[in-house]
Amino acid sequence: MQTLAETAVRLKHVEKSYGLGEARVPALRGVDLDVGVGELLMLVGPSGCGKTTLISVVAGILDQDAGSCEVFGREINRMRSGEKTRFRGRTVGFVFQQFNLLPALTARENVAIPLLLGRVAYAEAQDRAQTMLERVGLGSRSKALPSQLSGGQQQRVAIARALVHEPRLVVCDEPTSSLDQQTGQQIVELLREVALSGSRALIVVTHDSRIFRFADRIAVMNDGLITRVVRSADELEHPAPPRKDEP
Fold first, then answer.
1. pTM (2 decimals)?
2. Is residue 50 part of a domain?
């Protein structure tokens, strides 16, 4: 991992709520977090603590109510709608928990979608999609429909789709939740290899403790706040004792 002096994502006092008035529910309560270039950061915590809201703000899908969110030095919330859409399309790749593959399209056609949305010519988009499928080990399955692929293969297609436009930030929401242990570890190894090549950063939301060892750092979230950041799963189970000068 490179030093955090090279920052991909910088969150300062980020707040986000849903609803209005008495029905208002705070999801983020002033989150501070930096993610370095070349880093795989895992975001963990109980269901409902704000993890998905946080990565949606980082990815530019949701606007925060307060605070700042900078992605590679650009504050997303200050962009106009069209500029934000273009920035997100160029800069962010998103791997969803449920794959979200279009059932009527082949694997190659699914992977080509971000390129086509970015106005890449059809033939070039198909060629680049094929190259990315080969990189994730599915070159021979490029003409298969999602229904003809296993869960692990579908997740590989989803990863290829998230990476095909060479985003600098890759955000994953529970990428191993529906996979067996061996396949899940293969998926995370693949993400590390492909997503972190070059000047990129990777944020993975997960409940899967089996993959914690792949993280450079683990940020623990609870009740809308980052409560601590550790460098290994061992620190989650055995936190360091307080210094003598601490109360």
1. 0.88
2. yes
Confidence of residue 238 (pLDDT cuts 50, 70, 90): low
pLDDT tens digit sequence for 128-172: 999 999 988 899 999 999 999 998 899 889 999 999 999 999 999
How far is the C-alpha of 212 from the C-alpha of 132, rounded, in Å? 26
Q: Which amino acid is at 82?
A: G
What is the model's pLDDT at position 186? 84
Determine the structural domain holding residue 37 and report its residue range.
7-103+151-237
d(C-alpha 3, C-alpha 140), whole Å:
38
123 in any annotated domain:
no
The CATH number of whichever domain residue 194 belongs to comes to 3.40.50.300
CB 108 within 8 A of CB 133: yes
Distance CA 106, CA 144 (A): 5
Please give the tally of structural domains in the chain.
1
- How far is residue 173 from each of residues 24, 155, 225, 236, measured CA to CA in Å? 25, 12, 18, 21
Average pLDDT over the chain reads 88
Using pLDDT thresholds of 50, 70 and 90, give the confidence band for residue 247: very low
- Distances in whole angstroms, Cα of residue 209 to Cα of each of 130, 185, 214, 218: 33, 11, 10, 11
